[in-house]
């Protein structure tokens, strides 16, 4: 009777929720579970405005804030999954708020505008130019 009670308890939480690192991996926010776990441990993922642990259970309806690189997502969990599937399926697991989407687009446009005037050199620097670059690097070190 003991094994049956253990399996029934382990099956109930699995139906009610999924581990946070597993859900982030399945929703394709991170390529591996270890990257998701590292992001969670470094405070880049919050549930309901609070830092979470990787083993925290995610449930439908939870509000998440995920920082990935220079982008910040504010999400509402719509569905649960513990398997990684195609991107079209992963996008059905969450809904991003309109404010979050607008802020991401504005930040992306700002980054594009900042590098708008930059033109990469057409050729590699020659020997003289490399010496000048090295000399300038030495000046910056002082």
UniProtKB/TrEMBL annotation:
Pfam families: S4. GO terms for biological process: cellular response to heat. Keywords: DNA-binding, RNA-binding. The keyword DNA-binding applies. GO terms for molecular function: DNA binding; ribosomal large subunit binding; single-stranded RNA binding. CDD domains: S4. The keyword DNA damage does not apply. This is Heat shock protein 15.
